[in-house]
Each structure stands twice: as structure tokens, then as C-alpha cells.
Amino acid sequence: MQSQLTELGLIASLLRLDASWEQCSFEIPGSCIVQCLDEGCIEITAMQNSKQRALVYSAGVHGNETAPIELLDQLLSLVLRGELIPHQNLLLLIGNPEAMRLGCRELGTNLNRLFCGAHKRLDVDGEHVRAQILERHVADFYTSNTGSVERIHLDLHTAIRDSKFAKFVVYPFTHGEALDANSLAWLQACELDCVLFSNTPTTTFSYHSARTHGARAFTIELGKVNDFGENDLTSMSAMFEQLKYLLSAETSQQHSLVLERCHWFEVSETLVKAQAQFELCFSVDLANFTQFENGDVIALQADEPVIISDGPKAVIFPNANVAVGQRAALLVKKMDSEKIRLIAGDQLKLGKF
């Protein structure tokens, strides 16, 4: 497995249908111990661990979101070749390898709706089993990294459509806790200048890590879905540099938060597909964050119009093809910097990540 990962890389190893994923452990001399757990699940234990951060990097929760997988492939290759020396422990996860091999978003169920134990409430298929596996590895990893270590989970995605903001972040629901200015400043250093604040608990991977394990966890959208080899990774260079820094640096880095530089949104409501007779009243290629005004009809539920009120509101993640009972879109409202200051309170200070 070591030679396969080193010579072929993570993506090629996962795409090989004729090769099994072997559980194994091997050493990168003077650097780290690499453990191949389940398929697409790799734990890196730093030999020179400064115990500042316990990192979880995940990608490929949706199998056709290739750019983040390519980023983690490059990161792992640097570690395996000894070109990047970890000083923090890392759990690297490719969420849905089978969907990745098939080039599809999901096998039968949206994996990013099956965390926080949601996999137990529905019929079991490949994604339900995978959610259990991923939850178990995250729990084991954070349990083994004890003390004052900062828990961080970055779940990397790309969107199925264009966006008014090519890269953006979904900040999980905080249950009334103050926003973390250190995290916001770090996200800004990654050139992620658009932040969407959730307004309710969810069953996404990042919310699971935030709520269950107290991690600084975020869903990070890095552009649009493309095939392997067709992604412009240079547009994600700031993100990649920060992924490397968090893993290899012995200390934390200070970042300044410039509130006025960011575009801030909060979820206003969730549009759920309540029945099979459902349609969205706009183009299938409508860009994320497209704004609608009061009185605009955005969907039909069994011929009953869904009309924008208390607008203007923008639409995020519209998808009429989801299963009945699932989210078909998010409606979001723009926030100003003053509202962010009120929500964040005393937390809006310079800090480290």
C-alpha cells in the first residue's frame, strides 16, 4: 500500500478497481507514521508533534467534487515524499470513494445529510454505512488527541453550479455561542471572502464535528464541479498553502480580520421538497447567491407558488432533484458588518489559528 500510494497517488489508488485497499501502517523516516485505515481514510501521526492542532481534512463526500480531492492528493504526496514534515496529527478522509469511481455525486443518498447519527434513521445503503465509518474514525481520532489540542475539521467541496462568489464557507449553527473571530480571520487568509451562517442544526459532516466534538469545523466550497484533471487548482492556492501550514507549522499563525472585506449572509429559511410534484421557477443553471425580490415566485409545490417575502433574498444550493423531504434550496439574506459585530461580541479581536 505504501508503494502504491507513493507511486500512483491517492486518487489513482482509489480509482483502481482491480486493487483492494489494505489496512496497514508504515513510517516516513524522520517525519510521521502513516496508517491506512478504511478505504480513503488515512491517519498521519507526526513524530515531532507540537500538539497544537488535531486536523481533519475531508473531501469527496460527494463523489464528483474532484478539486478538493486533488488538493488532498497533492498534500498527501508531499508528505509521502518527505517534502512536507507534519508537526500536527491529521486524519485525511475521502468521503465517498465508490461514488468517486463512478463519477457521480452519490450512490443513492446524499452522504452529507447522514451525520449526527442520521444514518441510523433511514434505510441502509452504501452511504449510510459510509457515514458510520467516517463518524467512527473522527471520534477515534479526536479521542486519541487529548489535552489542549485545538480540534479543526475542514470539509472541502465544490458546487454543482456557478456562483456569484466562486468560493464561500458555510459556518455551522453555533447554538447561541459567539462567532469565532480567529476562524473568520483564517478563512479570510484562505481568500474565502463569503461566509454563510447557518440558522439551525443540520446533519452535515462539518456540523457533526462542531457539535459532537467541539471542533472548529466548516463546509468550504471551492468552485464548481469538474472532472479530474480539469480543475484550476491555482485558484485554490491560498487554501492549499493554509492546509499545508496548519499541518507542518509548530505554532499558530496570527491573522487580521477585515470585516468590510467579507460578504456575510445568514440562512433565512430552508426550502424543502414537500412532495414529488415540485419545481423550481428559474433556470437550472442559475448561479448561487442570485438575488430575488419580494413577490418573486421561486418554486411550485404541487402548483402552489413559493413567493419571496421579507426580501431581498438570495438562493443557494437549488436542486429540484432531491428526494421528497430533503432540502431543495436555501434562502439567505445579506448581513452588514455591524450585525456581525453584534453577534460576535467581544470575540472580534485579532487571534491565532
UniProtKB/TrEMBL annotation:
It catalyses: N-succinyl-L-glutamate + H2O = L-glutamate + succinate. The keyword Transferase does not apply. Its cofactor is Zn(2+). Gene3D superfamilies: Zn peptidases (3.40.630.10). It is an enzyme of class 3 (hydrolase). Pathway: Amino-acid degradation; L-arginine degradation via AST pathway; L-glutamate and succinate from L-arginine: step 5/5. Transmembrane segments: none annotated. GO terms for molecular function: hydrolase activity, acting on ester bonds; succinylglutamate desuccinylase activity; zinc ion binding. It holds the Pfam family AstE_AspA_hybrid. InterPro entries: AspA/AstE_fam, AstE_AspA_cat, Aste_AspA_hybrid_dom, SuccinylGlu_desuccinylase. The keyword Metal-binding applies. Keywords: Arginine metabolism, Hydrolase, Metal-binding, Zinc. Binds 1 zinc ion per subunit. Residues 261-334 form the AstE/AspA barrel-sandwich hybrid domain. Zn(2+) binds at H62, E65, H157. GO terms for biological process: L-arginine catabolic process to L-glutamate; L-arginine catabolic process to succinate. The active site is at E221. HAMAP family: Arg_catab_AstE. This is Succinylglutamate desuccinylase. It comes from Alginatibacterium sediminis. The lineage of its organism: Bacteria, Pseudomonadati, Pseudomonadota, Gammaproteobacteria, Alteromonadales. The gene is astE.
